[in-house]
Design a protein that fits this description.
Elements: E1 11-15, E2 19-27, E3 33-42, H1 60-71, E4 78-83, E5 89-95, H2 102-115, E6 125-132, H3 138-141, E7 152-159, H4 161-173, E8 177-183, H5 184-192, E9 201-207, E10 211-218, E11 221-229, H6 236-250, E12 263-269, H7 278-291, E13 295-299, H8 314-325
Parallel strand pairs: 1-4, 4-8, 9-12, 12-13
Antiparallel strand pairs: 1-2, 2-3, 5-7, 6-7, 9-10, 10-11
């Protein structure tokens, strides 16, 4: 999901608490994507603290210098900017009916953020994507206890304007113009969604040093999203089990609706790898043992976009996804 689309840039920049990454991509005449250049620069501790509430940049001059050093001597002007997940408040809301006017829809989303997600929005910029639910799958996508069928889901993102302004100012001081701004996990989700195998149910886990973002889908429609800052020592297996159990408790069983088959679980984490690691395979067995379902674990990697380049960097992958999704 892109917050401010203008036109498609060839450069993507990802800013995180511990590093800045840049990627240059190219589209050929057949619209195939390839990566031409990748670079990354670690950041000093405490220079940038991603947050959805407080200002993120402690020393704007020093951070701008770090960004200038990374892009020098490249001639870059317009970019797609990818922000770390903790700067945004993200959620998926079900709707039985939805206003057609964007202003009315934004007002309802603001209310639901504040009263259902218990997050104060204030003057935050809200961006949303409406996902209609086809009539033949509404029963499977309607939460247990709802009095009426769900006709659509809305994927919504809110970022405080003061926080957005800091990142825009940072780019301006480095001589860059962000023609699109988005959140890393959602940009990556949009970019790689077409690579997912057909399945009644998908789970996507974005696991970074800063945060974890889980997205649950049925029939290709996101029905649940939870993003939170990672605690020290947090376990990806326990997080996956908790999220999957929440979905099982909230939505009708697929077995009861005669829709059986393996659930596909996609994992993106740092370092980004091109193969399923042994501990990821153990996640598969843990999920199957606790939930009684077949869970097919597959990694989403850089290779899914450009098979010729494999770079083990979350920042590089999110920077590329931002440019692709712009």
């Amino acid at each position: 999901m892109t917050l401010f689309p203008v036109h498609r840039p060839n450069w993507g920049v990802s800013i995180r608490g511990n590093a800045i990454s840049i990627v240059q991509m190219r589209r050929d005449w057949m619209r195939r994507l390839s990566v031409r250049r990748f670079a990354e620069r670690p950041l000093p501790p405490n220079l940038l603290t991603p947050s959805a509430v407080d200002l993120n940049v402690g020393d704007m001059d020093t951070l701008a210098k770090e960004l200038k050093t990374l892009i020098h001597p490249l001639r870059i002007r317009t970019i797609a900017l990818s922000l770390p997940d903790p700067v945004a408040t993200m959620a998926v809301f079900p709707f039985e009916s939805l206003p057609s006017r964007r202003q009315e829809r934004d007002a309802i989303l603001k209310w639901r953020f504040e009263h259902e997600a218990h997050v104060p929005i204030g003057d935050a910029r809200i961006k949303s994507q409406v996902l209609p639910v086809p009539a033949h799958v509404r029963e499977a996508l309607t939460p247990i206890g709802s009095t009426e069928s769900i006709t659509s889901y809305v994927l919504a993102v809110a970022i405080k304007r003061s926080i957005l302004l800091q990142y825009q100012t940072l780019c301006e001081r480095a001589g860059l113009l962000p023609v699109s701004i988005g959140v890393g996990s959602l940009q990556l989700f949009d970019c790689l969604r077409g690579q997912m195998s057909p399945s009644v149910e998908h789970h996507v886990m974005m696991w970074t040093p800063e945060s974890s973002t889980f997205i649950g889908l049925r029939h290709g429609i996101p029905i649940f999203l939870r993003s939170k800052r990672r605690r020290f020592g947090s376990d990806i297996r326990m997080e996956l089990l908790a999220m999957r159990q929440f979905l099982s408790d909230r939505f009708p069983s697929l077995e009861s609706s005669q829709e059986t088959g393996p659930s596909a679980l996609y994992i993106v984490r740092e370092p980004v790898t091109a193969s399923i690691e042994e501990d990821t395979c153990s996640d598969q067995w843990t999920m199957a043992e606790h939930l009684g379902r077949s869970i097919h674990v597959m990694p989403l990697t850089w290779n899914a976009i450009d098979p010729q380049r494999s770079i083990a960097s979350w920042g590089g992958l999110s920077a590329l996804a931002g440019a692709v999704a712009a």
